[in-house]
Amino acid sequence: MRVRDLPLPEQFVAHFADRGIRELYPPQAAAVDAGVCAGENVVAAVPTASGKTLIAELALVTADGPGLYVCPLRALAREKYEAFAALPGVDAAIATGDFDATGEALAGTDVVVATSEKVDSAIRNGASWVDDLACVAVDEVHLLGAERRGPTLEVTLATLRRRNPELQVVALSATVDNPEAIAEWLDAALVESEWRPVDLRTGVAVGGNVTFDDGTTTAVAVPNAAVGEAEAGGADDGPPGDTEVTAALVADAVDQGGQCLAFVRSRTEAVALAERLADDRLAERLGTESAATAAADEVADVDGTATGQRLADCLRVGVAFHHAGLRAGHRAVVEEAFRAREIACICATPTLAAGVNVPARRVVVRDQKRYAGSAMEWLPTLEVHQMCGRAGRPGLDPYGEAVLVGDEDTRAELVARYVEGEPEAVESKLTDPASLRTHVLSAIATGFAESEAEILDVFEGTFYAREAGAGGLADAVAVAVDDLVAAGLVRRETGGVETYRLAATPVGSTASKQYVRPETAERIVSGLRTAAGMRNPTTLTVFEVVCDTPDMQDTYLGNAERAEIYRFARANAGALTTAMDEPDDFEEWLESVKTARILDEWIGGATVEELVASYRIGPGDLDSRVERAEWLLSAAEALAETIGVRVPAVARARSRL
Ligand code: ADP
């Protein structure tokens, strides 16, 4: 099927042709056959890199009115926004700022790219543009199964569809075990395909020998195993370590002109592997030394943190690490340099696989397990498939190769789980009590529901309800309502005998509009009251309050640091709203004190470089905490006004941030 035969204005045909898109890929053609250009609901469950974005673009440009592209991952939103903004004559806007209010400015645009949280927040704040939509496209719809984010996605979609039954829904999913359930939920035609633009073979490496699923094998020379292991601090004989096998697989691909992605379990491992690969002169072998040096200089200009320095040192020789502790500016340089084929390898945590479009000749998955609490757990098949799916660049690589590094003992398990195994089914997480409280409060505060029965009506259109029936939520909803009443966010207004109506209290209403969790609002309100009664509440006081909420990220507290933070908390007890014998979870509270201390030093003039060095956090962690704190302080100001309490330190902290 040719693009020019589609019902598209000539300028779009020319636009796509400029990008090398003239003939539709088979799953795209199937989506057109299913009516994606004719207002029909379509779910496309196809592998990574098989052209899902075009399916969404076709739906949105042929829709009879404004469109919304829901992007559950912030990291992806900008890339998608740029794709829409480049469409001729299309006025696109992006709304990803974590949790800010209405976005009325978005009215009048042709396509809005937003996270599900942003859309949820807009609905709660009564934004009218959401009712004018003709089409909504949802990317990564399988994230429906993710904690927190999943329930927000399904409730938001259900609400949009309830308010606008004519709305066209196009949902894009990775390959999962139950795409037909998602299609049924959305009353959509299902396009399911295993087709990929570049062939992919997946194999397991034991030592230097790789056996692929198509029966082919490859052998790479692993340098003296004994030396490698001794350097890594392991045993000094025996089979080569996973790191050495990984290095050999990377060097082998680079020598054939291909780039690599190497996935490991943690940030520390990503840095360690990159620094190990830095010995292998990869840029020289790829022939891109000067471009790699330029990328290194760009990273060095971002800031003077040790993380930035280490990244620049790696880049200079053609390798990078990539994880959530990097600043957005660091990550952008790495991704760009990799796409431009200036560097040979990125060592990454699994976040890269879901987030960013960085195809490579060979993907090496060194670690297939990660810590979950105290034990190591196998990664979900879906996640490993997303990593493997990054292998093979259309038009550039003859094929893509994904290699799982294992040993004799794990070989069979790796084959069964990840080479031959099917990805998991998507399951709703809506019954999680914390998520349910949030969405129950929102249903009441927006006036969509005034009784438990009406709350169930709101949830009627969720994926959960489609699978299990909304009635299955009745008990959990009743518990959530009781919790919200006990927390002072909802009240029961009695009418006649035994009839009552649920309404949000002023605090509940503010919490919903500010888009904070019920528990966050509760903690801020009690913290503000305590602070108001203190002789001299400081900025540290208010940071302690907002950092001690579930909406602030945890900050890791190492053993060595624990005693120091404990001393700090004691010395500053007079400025904290929590007495030291008060917290149920003392460790968690100490972590909050650490975050509060970092933020307080930040507004006191400490530099990123200093804070990263003294608190051993990633520079990107500081950025994300500052951003969260800004939002939580603005919520605290709104809550202070709602309850009529004055704590000037809130505004002071906020303006200095
Ligand atoms: P996905 O979202 O499925 O991971 P993308 O939509 O990012 O994949 O597409 C991957 C790449 O394939 C993009 O660079 C895109 O421009 C290209 N592409 C998509 N459809 C076609 C097509 N029909 N012909 C040629 N290239 C295409």
Automatic annotation (TrEMBL):
Binding site for ATP: Q28
Gene Ontology MF: a single term: ATP hydrolysis activity
Name this polypeptide is given: ATP-dependent DNA helicase Hel308
Known EC number: 5.6.2.4
Catalysed reactions, as listed in the record: Couples ATP hydrolysis with the unwinding of duplex DNA by translocating in the 3'-5' direction; ATP + H2O = ADP + phosphate + H(+)
Pfam family name, one: Helicase_dom4_arc
Keywords recorded for this protein, A-Z: ATP-binding, DNA damage, DNA repair, DNA-binding, Helicase, Hydrolase, Isomerase, Nucleotide-binding
Domain named Helicase ATP-binding: residues: 33-194
Provenance organism: Halorubrum persicum
InterPro entries hit by this protein: DEAD/DEAH_box_helicase_dom, Hel308-like_dom4, Hel308_SKI2-like, Helicase_ATP-bd, Helicase_C-like, Helicase_Hel308, HTH_61, P-loop_NTPase
GO biological process terms held by the UniProt record: DNA repair
SMART domains: DEXDc, HELICc
Family named by the database record: Belongs to the helicase family. Hel308 subfamily.
The organism's place on the tree of life at top rank: Archaea
Role noted for this protein: DNA-dependent ATPase and 3'-5' DNA helicase that may be involved in repair of stalled replication forks.
Annotated Helicase C-terminal domain residues: 244-442
Complexes and interactors: Monomer.
